[in-house]
Task: inverse folding
């Protein structure tokens, strides 16, 4: 067996150190390319949305997921890391349950924020009426993020409403920038 054949055999065998390094470089490069493509897709999609918060968040989440998947697949490919990869998967499962329970309110606001950005029941500049701890308030939608919606009332006070509240209560839209009429 020639030296080149021996090097290639070791390079393509994930059980050897050179093979492990070779596959690490391959997986890392592939993850970089896919993460870059996700970022480019998000930037191109941003032209179609008025609020870029959701697009940037999804792009960052996709990039993290791409690297996590690459790490898990790499750990499953390398024989010495298989047990570590299995333990990582089990640990991530338990951690996600604990984090999910600890962050219920935050996650409900986040999911509600996605819902508001997706369904668009109101837009920036719309005048809405809702019930607050001070009673019924009327305000203009000033800002919409993944966690909170900010309204400005007639006294120029900010009414900061968690998105889970905006999704779960009846909102009366009084006026908006793009007028439409209900056909009778």
Result:
């Amino acid at each position: 067996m020639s030296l080149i054949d021996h090097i290639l055999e070791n390079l393509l065998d994930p059980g050897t150190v050179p093979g492990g390094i070779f596959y690490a470089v391959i997986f890392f490069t592939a993850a970089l390319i896919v993460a870059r493509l996700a970022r480019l897709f998000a930037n191109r999609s941003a032209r179609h949305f008025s609020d870029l918060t959701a697009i940037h968040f999804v792009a960052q989440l996709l990039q993290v997921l791409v690297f996590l998947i690459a790490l898990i697949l790499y750990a499953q490919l390398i024989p010495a890391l298989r047990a570590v990869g299995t333990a990582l998967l089990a640990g991530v499962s338990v951690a996600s349950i604990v984090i999910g329970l600890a962050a219920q309110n935050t996650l409900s606001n986040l999911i509600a924020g996605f819902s508001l950005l997706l369904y668009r029941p109101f837009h920036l500049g719309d005048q809405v009426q809702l019930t607050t701890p001070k009673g019924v308030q009327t305000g203009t939608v000033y800002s919409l993020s993944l966690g909170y919606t900010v309204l400005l009332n007639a006294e120029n006070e900010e009414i900061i409403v968690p998105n889970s509240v905006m999704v779960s209560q009846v909102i009366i839209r009084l006026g908006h920038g793009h007028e439409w009429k209900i056909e009778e």
Q: What stands out?
A: The longest strand covers residues 135-144. The chain has two domains: 3-102, 122-175.
